[in-house]
């Protein structure tokens, strides 16, 4: 009972399943417990285990694992190590590699040989132990020359860059740097390995001096760039690979010409280290948070379009974490920003004075709206075009820009062929504001599901025309002859993961005529297509919740009510509303929507048909 109460308090849940509670209780019971303590578990073990699996800073986790009194190496320390091993085993690591590292650390951190470990000794020792930091979840600011380690399993022979011995075991587990792919045993990570690749030059005189940055070994049996012969890497740490252009060479071919690095096939998107140099600290624009790289300046490489990448690691079931690591390897790490660590401000400030660059947003529609809103507030001298790499589900904006509805890492290589278009910021700014009011997406989806199912049964909005009025540019819509249960205001042709509510339009005879501020005539609406850049909103009516299934399959479209540049909605009673799938119950109010701004967006090229029947 006490353990269940602890779980409810620690995990902040109202009701914890009894069977799951019993299983967790047994899992924390150790085999060496005496009969006197068979019905007990140590809560410190439980909190230590949970803190290892949660997000957070390594220092906070180390302090959480520490008790108030000094640790005795025989008792509390052994239990903490046991829970660390338990957590590592849960994460799928080879604990046989980690156990001796942790034991050596526990011996080393007792600096005064007193037989006990103080809080300062525990934190200082833990913060300097690379395998332990990886286990705790390394979330520290990367310094130039410092490796960004992560635990990785290899399915082929790999050699340690420090001791040059093979990583052994069935899963061949080791630590691998995300940025340069430098690979080591867990026990070798603390033995002063070679520094990570540089991300900037130290002085202005080195600007424009393009040189390779070689990392030894693990060349995957590729061909040498100079002699075109295969690099045999099965029997040792042979061959070298350039971090920037990914060229492979034999050890004896490294010094051959050319020695200049051209950054390989992604040269148009890479901001190489010889284009970044330190400067005297300068003030940045006030509206955004203090930047991380405010003491560096950019001297752009001619005829290139450096890519500024923003990644939301929590998008798409944490697919963003893998995408973040991929871009940190493909590009300069100073081009890639984790939105959960400081937001978009530091990246926009770093690229602020660059004249020709592009932005790639990796995340959902809400993330895109966040970035576009930040660009608008930053008052940048040059507004860069924005591309989208969709993560997760839905992604209606990405679908409209032909980037698809789900994560696809190959699309980062197709940015050269992208076309330029414009898209209104109106709805996207609203998404950004509301997302912060209700950050729990799962709770919102359940809430929205409850609205939909209860509405299908009760039809509480059946007489919607009696509950609200809609005015478009001063023209009030006549809803008296319509039986509507929902109203949708559209800015893009996709909604709820691909539903086209407006539908396809017939061929228009308007030609090059200017678009009026408002269109309410049903015949004109039939031939009025949606356009992402026309500064107009489309207003449609829905006859019921079941109708959405027919719209999604393309069998029908919603009722077209108006095409307008401004809309005012006045409600007379509380009504459920949603923006981009995020629902809330809105009391009686007046909603006024108008055009705010536009942003340049990158559109993917039209997909080519293939096959005998021209199937995509």
Descriptive account of the structure:
- This protein is α+β, with helices and mostly antiparallel strands and 616 residues long.
- Among the domains are: 280-425, 3-Layer(aba) Sandwich (Rossmann fold); 459-596, Tumour Suppressor Smad4, CATH 2.60.200.
- It has 16 helices and 26 strands.
- Strands 12-11-13-14 form a four-stranded parallel β-sheet, sandwiched between helices. A four-stranded antiparallel β-sheet has the order 17-16-22-25, with no helix packed on it.
- A hairpin with a 2-residue loop joins β23 and β24.
- α3 packs across α5 (76-90), α5 runs antiparallel to α6 and α11 packs across α13.
- The longest helix has 18 residues, at 441-458.
- The radius of gyration is 29 Å and the shape is globular.
- Residues 302-408 form the DAGKc domain.
- Monomer.
- InterPro entries: ATP-NAD_kinase_N, C1-like_sf, C1_DGKalpha_rpt2, DAG_kinase_typeI_N, DGK, DGK_typeI_N_sf, Diacylglycerol_kin_accessory, Diacylglycerol_kinase_cat_dom.
- It is found in: Cytoplasm, Cytosol.
- Belongs to the eukaryotic diacylglycerol kinase family.
